[in-house]
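stage 2 :: seqdesign
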């Protein structure tokens, strides 16, 4: 429910509060954690920072990922996810910083495909043969990416159930989009 300052004043007047008392109440409510403006500079910086980290993990670092063994990729990605989740929990619960905390949870979810890729690569478990380098994930449609997409969706749903943050739906939507393409080779095979 969205309440304007005029709505609050009208309700306050009905209950015997003066305009200065209603204004003081409005100021108190505006300062609560989690009641920030959606397009302030801090939020833009938080989202930009999260985008930079996502880009770095998914694109810029692919050459480094490919030089590691499968278990190395999986363990490092799992450690990153763990650090992002712990930092997100600290920001969310301890400091009441919902946007940075939620974005850190989102970064943890974004590590899921890399974790799964690492362990699939190590074990050689591919639904439709080895798909090649992780950098090819964003370039080629292949049925072998499907486990990564399912895992990302599951991790995203779990994260949303634990912490209600709308941006957590982004990795889910992204994985569903990729899954819509990668299911075709599996179905056609």
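stage 2 :: out
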């Amino acid at each position: 429910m969205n309440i304007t300052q005029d709505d609050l004043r009208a309700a306050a007047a009905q209950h015997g509060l003066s305009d200065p008392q209603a204004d003081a109440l409005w100021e108190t409510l505006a300062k609560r954690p989690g009641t920030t403006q959606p397009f302030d500079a801090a939020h833009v910086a938080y989202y930009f920072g999260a985008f930079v980290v996502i880009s770095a993990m998914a694109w810029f670092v692919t050459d480094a990922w490919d030089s590691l063994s499968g278990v190395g990729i999986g363990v490092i990605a799992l450690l990153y996810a763990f650090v992002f989740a712990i930092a997100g929990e600290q920001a969310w619960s301890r400091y009441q910083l919902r946007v940075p905390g939620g974005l850190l949870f989102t970064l943890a979810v974004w590590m899921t495909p890399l974790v799964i890729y690492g362990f699939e690569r190590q074990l050689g478990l591919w639904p439709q043969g080895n798909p090649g380098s992780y950098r090819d994930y964003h370039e080629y449609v292949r049925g072998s990416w499907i486990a990564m997409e399912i895992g990302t969706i599951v991790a995203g749903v779990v994260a949303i159930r634990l912490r209600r943050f709308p941006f957590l739906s982004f990795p889910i939507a992204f994985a569903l989009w990729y899954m819509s393409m990668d299911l075709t080779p599996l179905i056609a095979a």
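stage 3 :: structure notes
- Residues 70-94 form the longest helix (25 residues).
- Residues 11 and 159 are 37 Å apart (CA to CA).
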